[in-house]
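Students often ask why we bother predicting the structure of a whole assembly rather than each chain alone. The short answer is interfaces. A chain on its own may look different once its partners are present, and contacts between molecules only exist in the joint model. In this exercise we take two input lines together and write out one structure for the complete complex. Read the inputs first and try to guess which parts will touch.
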Amino acid sequence: MPPPRVRDPRTVELQAGRDRLRRQIASREAEESRLRAQVADYGHRIEVTPGLETELTGIMRDYDTLKGIYAKLLGRKEEAQISANLQENDIGEQFMIVAPATLPSRPASPNRLQLNLAGVFGGLVFALGLAGFLEYRDSSLRTDHDVLAALALPTLVTIPVILPPWQVRRQRTVGAIFWLSALAALAAGAALLLQSLR
Amino acid sequence: MARTRSLDAGNPSRYFDKTILSPDMTPAVKEQFRNLATKLHHTQGSKGLKTLVISSALASEGKTLTSINLALTLSESFKRRVLLIDADFRRPSLHDLLALAASPGFADALVQGTDAPLAPYVMTPYLSVLTAGSAIEPISVLSSRNLPRVLDRAKDDFDWILLDTPPIGLLSDAGLIAAHADGVLLVVAAGKTPVDLVQRAVATFGRERIVGTVLNRVEPDAVAGGYHYSYDQYYRRDKGER
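Now the answer. The structure tokens for the assembled complex follow.
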């Protein structure tokens, strides 16, 4: 049986130093890995920062909107509460007229003068148009000159309209009624026009 | 076999006021009919006019009243023997206006021919009236040979034969009668009948057959440039002075 080998203390020490260094290396490598992971984490956080900022802006905007709505609703609630209190306490009658409403001196609409003038002008144009149209359509003969021109025949006599006395009386009555009505209509129209001008 | 009847006998019709017999008739209208009668009288002298058809283009233009007033003027003012015939078998009206019986009349005379004597109403010594009578088929009656015979026979007894006919624009009766008459007097209602219808009537009769026109129902202002009123005033003043 060979004698046991006696280990050199120097070697043992070196080996112990070597093991210690190895442990230190492993520790440093673990720390490096941890730091690298941290660097990667921070890098990732830096990369996603703009998206978060946008999201934050949106959230802030929604917050402001909701805050405005809330303030408005809160105001209304307070107003409603005040109204309810006023009604409950019957103090609404204490309103007073600060400035009474005033009647306008002229109506804003309709413009009577304009309407009356338009009516007069329209009636005149319509009457003239109708008279012109009827005259244009009328191809009857009225005088002996018309007969001669259209037929080239002599007119021996022209007989006037023969009306019996009762018909003459009726025609005069109808005529008088017509002229009186026309005068009344003219007077009424003139009065309306004058009223519009004032 | 003449029947006699006074002009004022019976009930005057509602048109009596439109005849020159009416006391209310204006002198100017009477004078116009005298003018017409005078012109026809001269035409008779120059052209031998004796049988005169009085017609118009359309209905209700005043043919019948013109016929009556002309007949009255020729007979009473000019003392001419006048036979007034209602030749409108479709819508006879002369008997109504003069309060006479419609039958027997002209149509019956045409059916019987010259064998039977005419039986007119003798209204005055100078005026006789033959009413329309009864005709079942006017065209066959008017186109018979008896029409010229009856008219020729009447010419022996009368100076004027006036035939009141239907409107030529609606019926052909007037054309058939005018073919055997000496002339046509065309009545035109002023301001009513369209000129093309009057021209068609003239063409149907034939321009050479038309003696002239009577422009009827003219507004008084248009009669001889307002002479109508002046004449009435002159006439009244003249009568008043006497």
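Check your guess against this: Chain B has nine helices and eight strands.
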